[in-house]
Write a structure and sequence with these properties.
Radius of gyration of chain A: 22 Å
Largest sheet of chain A: 7 strands, mixed
Shape of chain A: globular
Strand content of chain A: 5-15%
Radius of gyration of chain B: 24 Å
Strand order of the largest sheet of chain B: 1-2
Oligomer: heterodimer
CATH superfamily of chain B: MetI-like
Order of helices and strands of chain B: HHHEHHHHHHHHHEHHHHHHHHHH
CATH class of the largest domain in chain A: Alpha Beta
Number of strands of chain B: 2
Largest sheet of chain B: 2 strands, parallel
Order of helices and strands of chain A: HEHEHEHEHEEEHHHEHHEEHHEHHH
Structural class of chain B: mainly alpha
Number of domains of chain A: 2
Shape of chain B: globular
Strand content of chain B: under 5%
Number of strands of chain A: 11
CATH topology of the largest domain in chain A: D-Maltodextrin-Binding Protein, domain 2
Distance between the termini of chain A: 67 Å
CATH architecture of chain B: Orthogonal Bundle
CATH topology of chain B: MetI-like fold
Number of domains of chain B: 1
CATH superfamily of the largest domain in chain A: Periplasmic binding protein-like II
Number of helices of chain A: 15
CATH architecture of the largest domain in chain A: 3-Layer(aba) Sandwich
Number of helices of chain B: 22
CATH class of chain B: Mainly Alpha
Chain lengths: 334, 547
């Protein structure tokens, strides 16, 4: 190869490296649940997306350790507690975008514009018709009643959805009332907590318990999975706390990191994610409730019926997470 | 002390420091203990965590010892139906990641699984009308872990049993001793057996996937509960240090016990132990026992995975199998080479007689530098990430000030960080077999070779190398398969757009898509089997060549 061609080739490569727009994403959503959307973004914008997936707190720790060297532009989280933690640790930077603030309802984004909610997942009560009369059901608090002794399936308190749910209760009914509730509620478990959300539904279907607590997202996925369809069809959704604060919801969201090297592309990606195409994908492919009110939910979710969601400030959930966990330790909720 | 030996000692000291860096980071967390969280833990769940961790490691160690030890003895001593292929097939569970076998057994044996559903349908019973062993329990975790971890004991013990000198048996018999197994074979194989058990127990202590899935609260699940749930990384690191100290204590106890006995084979000619023939009935019995273990540890879960993988065949195209496989194989091969090399350097350091104080200190440092195996991969990863990203930031600041360029993540942003984490995590896996093998070579053999005019290097090449070929292969294979299965450190440290089979398996399984996770899981297993077959050939060849 001639020297001049080598030089030309090298400088071309250097130029294209300069010009190629990129955005680096650290995602707590696993690949399956984010990559297709990122591919669509690349196709429509020409911006290449580099992706690392992982557990939320591990990603946060990595970003914190990397410090000023961190290549991360966008953090995608599956629950609001971690976005709150990122904010507390000073890892985020605000995003000025009228599109984001106009599209996302105020309770689903950070007042300081540090993080933005993208979708919601709700945590209703699932009951086995025939064994439970829906008229007996009312609130999550009511599940601590002695009449439910040995009839409830719920997963371990290791799980963030349970932590958020209890944190939400501490915020509304207070720590003492929640502690008393948790102690009684834990006595009503049909078995020591084990497995994931799907396992609770399966256990209810197998007759272990009459009530299971699980996310809508998992129940909908089971209804579409031939192996789990029968189990999922044997339970029905009941929306708790409709007369007071509303059913517990958690949101998945995204934020731009403080040391982001590609801020413009990061903003572009966030704006893409609240666009109709992306919101539609979340709703149909993944059975999540879109934050964009104009996008319809999936037919399966429609079958669960409309509900009133808890409008508690989501920051509170993050703030009270540790207290919630300690409270569940004391209640003997494994 | 001579200059050259001082130089060697300081090089060893440096190596130890590098190897201990991540653990030091973890222990350093105790400099400012998170008292609020410790108070909470000690008053609520800490005793449960400790007790369950000890029971889990102890139970798994014992069951693996019973399984691995008995299988190794039968294979090394007797001729029976199917011995030829059972002897290597019994290593197959090694290729099965513990969390995968946990998923398979939970899927099969749970209340909602096919077995209990069929039982209920057949008998008309309802839940709680009958008793069924609960798979998601401490006992279930012990059984499941033992089924995939016993090969550590089996591999090391088989090597030890089959290299025992037949003259000892003859001597034992001529002295009228009937209990060759208890009085001679077992005591002689003790270092190998306990070495294997030590590995099993460390792995059980560090396990997270199985216990988390089965809902058994142990120290590792506690670490993550404190970190993720309470957002207290410092308290999580302090818990990890506690876990690590537990293991250090256990292993030092074992080493101390082992020091009471030292034995070298001083016989000149060595023959291979002839296999004893068994009666038809006993032969069949032994064959059944081995097949049963193989079925439970491998065939059954692999079969379940295959069925699930086929049922979810429409999800295959979304998985970039070729990329995943290439990444996994490259990482596993590179780290197997690296880890075995460092382990060799280490065990030769341990072989030096501790005379001088520096040597004695060094000896203990070398001993504890392989304890990363008992620490969950995630914790190791944090221990690697912290010091190196500090270094990177310092370099970055200086480079920007002096040269106006940014150096960025030149280490932690690449696979190098990952390889280093594997080295810390899996060093023990290579050290155990190499140390056991090197311990079988008496110093008198070195002296004899030297008296015949060999220099140090020639002694190694002509005496040690042929005797170490088998153990080196075993060590390399164990590391290879372990890295192939490794999840937590990979998940945390991998660079952009870089996934492995284990990562994809975990992601699908964590989203509760067990059927879709089966295909990549099965490929991990298959990729681990091929080198197992190769190993078996190499070890057998070298075994023959050595005699």
């Amino acid at each position: 190869m001639k020297f001049s061609t080598l030089v030309a080739g090298l400088s071309l490569g250097w130029l294209s490296a300069l010009q190629a727009a990129e955005v680096n994403v650290y995602s707590a959503r696993q690949q399956e649940l984010i990559k297709p959307l990122l591919d669509k973004f690349t196709a429509s914008s020409g911006v290449k997306v580099n992706l690392i997936t992982g557990k939320p707190d591990e990603l946060l720790t990595r970003i914190r350790q990397e410090g000023r060297n961190s290549p991360a532009d966008v953090l995608i989280s599956t629950d609001v507690g971690r976005l709150y933690r990122a904010k507390q640790q000073g890892l985020l930077q605000p995003v000025e975008s009228t599109l984001l603030t106009s599209q996302i309802p105020a309770q689903y984004r950070d007042p300081a514009k540090l993080w933005f909610g993208l979708t919601m997942r709700a945590r209703p009560i699932l009951y086995v018709p025939g064994k439970v009369d829906p008229a007996e059901l009312s609130t999550i608090e009511n599940l601590a009643d002695a009449k439910w002794r040995g009839r409830i399936c719920i997963r371990s308190s290791d799980n963030v959805y349970n932590q958020s749910m209890v944190a939400g209760m501490i915020a509304t009914i207070g720590a003492d009332a929640t502690a008393k509730w948790a102690a009684d509620f834990a006595k009503n478990f049909a078995q020591p907590p084990k497995g994931g959300d799907r396992d609770q539904v399966k256990a209810a279907a197998a007759g272990v318990c009459d009530i299971a607590i699980a996310n809508t997202y998992y129940l909908a996925a089971m209804l579409e999975d031939p192996a789990d369809k029968a189990a999922a069809s044997s339970v029905k959704v009941f929306w708790p706390n409709q007369q007071d604060r509303g059913a517990h919801v958690n949101i998945s969201g995204a934020a731009v990191l403080k040391h982001a090297p590609n801020q413009a592309q990061a903003k572009q990606l966030l704006e893409y994610m609240v666009g109709a195409e992306a919101q539609q994908w979340y709703a149909t492919a993944n059975h999540e409730y879109p934050v964009l009110a104009s996008v319809p939910v999936s037919p399966v979710l429609q079958g669960f019926g409309p509900f009133k969601a808890d409008t508690l400030s989501l920051d509170k959930l993050g703030e009270l997470n540790q207290q919630a966990l300690m409270l569940m330790d004391q209640a003997g909720w494994k | 002390m001579s200059g050259s030996s001082r130089r060697t000692a300081s090089l060893y000291l440096l190596l130890c420091l590098i190897l201990l860096l991540p653990q030091l980071v973890i222990f350093a967390s105790w400099l400012s203990p998170n008292l609020a969280i410790w108070q909470h833990l000690t008053s609520t769940v800490l005793s449960t965590y400790l007790l369950n961790s000890l029971l889990l490691a102890g139970g798994t160690g014992l069951l693996s010892l019973l399984l691995g030890g008995s299988l190794a003895y039968l294979v090394a001593r007797y001729q029976f139906y199917g011995r030829q292929w059972l002897s290597w097939a019994l290593m197959l569970p090694l290729a099965m990641p513990a969390y995968i076998i946990a998923y398979s057994y939970a899927g099969l044996l749970d209340v909602a699984g096919p077995l209990q559903s069929a039982l209920r349908e057949l008998t008309g019973w309802r839940y709680q009308d009958y008793w069924f062993p609960p798979i998601r329990s401490l006992g279930g975790a012990i059984v499941v872990l033992s089924l995939v971890l016993y090969p550590y004991v089996y591999l090391l013990a088989r090597q030890a049993f089959s290299s025992q000198n037949p003259a000892w048996q003859e001597a034992a018999q001529s002295l009228g001793g009937r209990h060759y197994l208890w009085r001679v074979a077992l005591p002689l194989a003790r270092p190998a057996l306990l070495g294997g058990v030590a590995l099993v127990m460390m792995e059980a202590f560090a396990d997270y996937g199985t216990v988390a899935y089965f809902g058994v609260p142990v120290l590792t699940t506690g670490i993550f509960r404190v970190w993720f749930g309470m957002g207290a990384l410092d308290a999580a690191a302090q818990l990890s240090a506690l876990l690590c100290s537990l293991v250090v204590g256990l292993v030092l106890l074992e080493v101390w016990q082992r020091r009471q006995q030292r034995f070298f084979d001083r016989s000149s000619g060595s023959r291979r132990m002839p296999l004893q023939r068994l009666s038809r009935r006993r032969s069949l019995l032994v064959c059944c026992y081995l097949s049963l273990v193989l079925t439970l540890g491998f065939l059954l879960p692999a079969g379940a995975l295959t069925v699930w993988a086929i049922s979810a065949s429409d999800s295959w195209q979304q998985l970039a199998f070729a990329d995943l496989l290439t990444n996994s194989l490259l990482l596993a091969t590179a780290s197997a080479g690296l880890v075995v090399l460092v382990a060799l350097v280490l065990v030769y350091g341990l072989r030096q007689r501790p005379g001088h104080l520096l040597h004695a200190v060094l000896h203990h440092l070398l001993r504890i530098s392989s304890f990363g195996y008992a620490v969950p991969g995630t914790v190791i990863a944090i221990g690697v990430l912290w010091p190196f990203s500090q270094l990177e930031q310092a370099v970055d600041v200086l480079a920007e000030q002096w040269f106006g360029v940014r150096t960025g993540l030149f280490f932690t942003g690449t696979v190098l960080a990952l390889l280093f984490a594997y080295l810390i995590r899996f060093l023990a896996v290579a050290v155990q077999p190499l140390e056991a093998a090197l311990g079988q070579i008496p110093p008198s053999m070195d002296q004899a070779a030297r008296s015949l005019g060999c220099n140090g290097w020639q002694v190694w090449w002509r005496v040690h190398r042929p005797l170490l070929t088998g153990p080196v292969c075993i060590a390399a294979l164990l590391v290879f398969v372990d890295v192939l299965k490794e999840l937590p450190a990979t998940l945390l440290l991998r660079p952009f757009n870089f996934d492995t089979l284990a990562v994809r398996t975990f992601e699908l399984a964590s989203d509760e898509q067990l059927a879709a996770a089966a295909a990549p899981a099965l490929i991990i297993v298959l990729a681990g089997i091929l080198p197992l077959i190769w190993l078996n050939h190499t070890v057998q060849r070298s075994g023959h060549a050595g005699h």
